[in-house]
């Protein structure tokens, strides 16, 4: 059995029948999106930790196959449920943001991308047990220019070539 399937069974045992299906990791990661969105809506911290943990594990694997799968089959699409953007932004590691940002720029309409930039530029407060919490800037202070100094610029004409 592929290593990613073993890890999926370890972190997501309730999805055994899906993991054991003859699908690629791309399809499996895509199947996790509706589950993570439902977990956000129901505030299911256990499911959120397990799903994001698996995708983060894929992203951090050596080589490009699993990392690319995590990028294009999960992280690139994670903001598609727009009403969950605040919760999602607090769950994204910096290394993911840096790699996926050009793809979000390519996919998201300008106002939505500006909102994602604003959310990702807000300081994150992390604790060892709890997920990230986004602190809103004080109302009397306008938001700083989003990701002005750290914006990732694609080096190719189509950001999908970056992955």
Helices and strands, with pairings:
Layout: H1 3-11, H2 16-19, H3 25-41, H4 45-59, H5 65-73, H6 85-89, H7 94-107, H8 110-121, E1 124-125, E2 133-134
End-to-end CA span? 26 Å
Radius of gyration: 16 Å
The low-confidence parts are 122-163
How many beta-strand elements?
A: 2
Please give the largest β-sheet. 2 strands, antiparallel
Number of helices: 8
Measured by DSSP, the beta-strand proportion falls in under 5%
Shape: globular
User: What portion of residues is helical?
Assistant: 40-55%
Topology as a string of helices (H) and strands (E): HHHHHHHHEE
Structural class: mainly alpha
Q: What is the average per-residue confidence, as pLDDT, rounded to a whole number? A: 81
| Biggest β-sheet: strands ordered side by side in the sheet | 1-2
Supply the number of structural domains: 1
What descriptors fit this protein?
163 residues; mainly alpha; two-stranded antiparallel ribbon; 8 helices
How would you sum up this structure, described in words?
The protein is built from 8 helices and 2 strands. With 163 residues, the protein is mostly helical. It has one domain. Strands 1-2 form a two-stranded antiparallel ribbon. A hairpin with a 7-residue loop joins strand 1 and strand 2. Helix 1 packs antiparallel against helix 4 and helix 3 packs antiparallel against helix 4. The protein starts with a helix and ends in a 29-residue tail after the last strand. The C terminus is likely disordered.
């Amino acid at each position: 059995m592929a290593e990613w399937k073993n890890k999926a069974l370890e972190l997501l045992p309730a999805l055994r029948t899906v993991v054991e299906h003859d699908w690629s990791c791309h399809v499996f990661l895509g199947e996790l999106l509706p589950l993570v969105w439902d977990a956000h809506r129901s505030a299911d911290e256990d499911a959120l930790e397990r799903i994001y943990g698996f995708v983060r594990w894929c992203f951090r694997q050596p080589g490009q196959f699993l990392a690319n799968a995590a990028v294009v089959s999960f992280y690139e699409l994670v903001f598609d449920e727009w009403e969950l953007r605040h919760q999602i932004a607090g769950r994204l590691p910096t290394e993911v943001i840096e790699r996926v940002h050009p793809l979000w720029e390519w996919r998201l309409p300008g106002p939505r991308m500006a909102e994602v930039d604003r959310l990702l530029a807000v300081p994150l407060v992390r604790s060892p047990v709890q997920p990230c919490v986004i602190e809103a800037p004080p109302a009397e202070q306008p938001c700083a220019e989003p990701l002005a100094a750290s914006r990732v610029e694609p080096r190719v004409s189509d950001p999908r070539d970056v992955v």
